[in-house]
């Protein structure tokens, strides 16, 4: 009995290690692009960060299933300088049992935001290969912005048209009254101008025309 | 005091002209006048400088070998553009009538030239204002954060992006689907797009409010609409030159390819570009200059307008191409970065080991060591030239290429708003000229009773144009705009301009015209003008016309369509115009031109019929007219 227990204890880590390998059936690949996301403030990837990842994944699994997942249930392997690695999740009750892929995906989706936040990364810089991020719908204001701008512009234009039409009709009325007055004056003038001879009348007209144009030619 | 020694004939005519205006005061409204010279110049410049200066000239410059294109362009300006411009301004200022009145004055048989101008102006104003409606739509959307053409909308079940948008680009999707809601071909009309109807209504309302008092309101509006684009172009120039990749664009634009001058197509395009750019033969310029005083130096005006128009084209191409160079470089960098990511992920290098700078070294190194792995990765070929070659003209430039560039610039909303307001001002000032070419001839033809005020006439015209332009807000609207743009605004104008120059120089007579100019400017036209008017310009126009028609007739006209179910989507599918559209095209090109022989024929027949009855010959040189006028003058005062 004791031998069996010792054997089991020795074999378990090996089993777990065997379960975690690239393209493992229940495994997922994770890829981090820390320098791309943070630039100068990028932190180095080391054991501590890996530990943080394991605990965050355990947290995510706890949230989904309610079982007491611990850090040792998240088995990581095949780390590369890219910062990418594979991981599998073992069941807390039976370490030789792997949690199915679908459940791991669900857990990741549910807690994706928290996982991202823990590493100060985003959906595109902390990638779980095979687990697509849910897309955020773009924010739509209740009234489309363009209608508001259109309303403002058209309001001004219509008001302007209205005002200009009113002004011009008022001006026309004033002009009509003015012309009625002026016509009476003109008739008196006309008789006065015509009395001299034709020659000087022509000179009068001649001079007026030139005078008018002088006014308009200069800028 | 500098007044010329005027020969007796012109002297008496001039007196009559001056006096007739005064005596007819009580009977006819005085001809409107410009408040000052600046308004007149700004209006003419605004009419000539339009959207084409921004989105057609830089494109032509680019495809025809940059700096080398300037040579045919300047030659066309000097020998074709300036003489025509001077001719129109001079004849309008001298005869003081709009386009129909001017040609009828020269000879009653030529009234058709004016009617042709009027029809062309009307047709052009309709589709031109539709373009302004599209500009307004984009302008209204530029206030949104983020810009709506920068992202794809989600599909119905929110699992991914809209399929059409994914296959093409968000910018293309916004233009073809959300703005135009375009149908796959011109036969499918689709329905009226309410948002485009709304934008079209605003565009026509804005045009109406500026035109409400004729040149009184237009003269004030042009202070803004003509000068604002220059301000914006300068701002874009400064911004554009400081963007990374600007030098790529500028080098690409201005690198002269002298070989291209051997291609006759280049010369044809240069001549047509100058011609359409200066907005001659629309009749608007004749009307505008007829409101001048008769003693105005129209030679200087014409040269100024022509030179400023070309200078603006050149000036606009610099910021446009800086920004296009920036866009090409951004696209190139994105392409490289995608490759870098693929390499980094595959070979598991540390993040940011492979950068834009050392990409080439890494690539060569990896290709030597692991050639098959690198091949399997299917890396994209990133070539800066291909991105620079992705140029466009027309609506493609403004609504697709430029909007894409604006997304990459920091502070996108500001640049988008500035750009679209600039396009709108450019188009608006050209619309004034178009409308002027329609309204004043209507008045002169006495088609409407005199008691209808100008405001009402303008309003009715705007309303009718809006109604007809609703075709362009259908699903197939864009295809129709291209039809109008290609066939109304091309051959008819060339023919009308040819008849204009023949009428003035050969029918009115070079001598009479020289006298007119002597009267107006105080000096006779020099040998350059005479040579151009008599021989060079008509010849050039004829050659360009014939060449243009031949080039067009060589193949059955086709048009590009946006068809999401096309195999090679997002490439545009090129289709032939169906027969009924072809018939409409022929109609559009020929109706304005047909009026010339038609009116001549009608007048000939009418004059033969009326020859028996004593007709009052309205030749102002005839003394009998003066006597009749004097009698009429005396009568009311008797």
Automatic annotation (TrEMBL), chain A:
<dbReference type="InterPro" id="IPR042944">
    <property type="entry name" value="Collectrin"/>
</dbReference>
<keyword id="KW-0472">Membrane</keyword>
<dbReference type="GO" id="GO:0051957">
    <property type="term" value="P:positive regulation of amino acid transport"/>
</dbReference>
<feature type="transmembrane region" description="Helical">
    <location>
        <begin position="146"/>
        <end position="167"/>
    </location>
</feature>
<keyword id="KW-1003">Cell membrane</keyword>
<protein>
    <submittedName>
        <fullName>Collectrin, amino acid transport regulator</fullName>
    </submittedName>
</protein>
<keyword id="KW-0325">Glycoprotein</keyword>
<feature type="signal peptide">
    <location>
        <begin position="1"/>
        <end position="16"/>
    </location>
</feature>
<dbReference type="GO" id="GO:0070062">
    <property type="term" value="C:extracellular exosome"/>
</dbReference>
<keyword id="KW-0812">Transmembrane</keyword>
<feature type="region of interest" description="Disordered">
    <location>
        <begin position="176"/>
        <end position="219"/>
    </location>
</feature>
<dbReference type="InterPro" id="IPR031588">
    <property type="entry name" value="Collectrin_dom"/>
</dbReference>
<dbReference type="GO" id="GO:0005886">
    <property type="term" value="C:plasma membrane"/>
</dbReference>
<feature type="domain" description="Collectrin-like">
    <location>
        <begin position="24"/>
        <end position="219"/>
    </location>
</feature>
<feature type="compositionally biased region" description="Polar residues">
    <location>
        <begin position="192"/>
        <end position="210"/>
    </location>
</feature>
<keyword id="KW-0597">Phosphoprotein</keyword>
<keyword id="KW-1133">Transmembrane helix</keyword>
<keyword id="KW-0732">Signal</keyword>
<dbReference type="Pfam" id="PF16959">
    <property type="entry name" value="Collectrin"/>
</dbReference>
TrEMBL record, chain B:
<keyword id="KW-0812">Transmembrane</keyword>
<comment type="similarity">
    <text>Belongs to the sodium:neurotransmitter symporter (SNF) (TC 2.A.22) family.</text>
</comment>
<keyword id="KW-1133">Transmembrane helix</keyword>
<feature type="binding site">
    <location>
        <position position="277"/>
    </location>
    <ligand>
        <name>Na(+) 1</name>
    </ligand>
</feature>
<dbReference type="InterPro" id="IPR002438">
    <property type="entry name" value="Neutral_aa_SLC6"/>
</dbReference>
<feature type="binding site">
    <location>
        <position position="53"/>
    </location>
    <ligand>
        <name>Na(+) 1</name>
    </ligand>
</feature>
<dbReference type="GO" id="GO:0035725">
    <property type="term" value="P:sodium ion transmembrane transport"/>
</dbReference>
<dbReference type="InterPro" id="IPR037272">
    <property type="entry name" value="SNS_sf"/>
</dbReference>
<feature type="transmembrane region" description="Helical">
    <location>
        <begin position="223"/>
        <end position="246"/>
    </location>
</feature>
<dbReference type="GO" id="GO:0015293">
    <property type="term" value="F:symporter activity"/>
</dbReference>
<keyword id="KW-0915">Sodium</keyword>
<keyword id="KW-0769">Symport</keyword>
<feature type="transmembrane region" description="Helical">
    <location>
        <begin position="487"/>
        <end position="507"/>
    </location>
</feature>
<keyword id="KW-0813">Transport</keyword>
<feature type="transmembrane region" description="Helical">
    <location>
        <begin position="527"/>
        <end position="551"/>
    </location>
</feature>
<keyword id="KW-0472">Membrane</keyword>
<feature type="transmembrane region" description="Helical">
    <location>
        <begin position="414"/>
        <end position="435"/>
    </location>
</feature>
<feature type="binding site">
    <location>
        <position position="49"/>
    </location>
    <ligand>
        <name>Na(+) 2</name>
    </ligand>
</feature>
<dbReference type="Pfam" id="PF00209">
    <property type="entry name" value="SNF"/>
</dbReference>
<feature type="transmembrane region" description="Helical">
    <location>
        <begin position="108"/>
        <end position="140"/>
    </location>
</feature>
<protein>
    <recommendedName>
        <fullName>Transporter</fullName>
    </recommendedName>
</protein>
<feature type="transmembrane region" description="Helical">
    <location>
        <begin position="40"/>
        <end position="57"/>
    </location>
</feature>
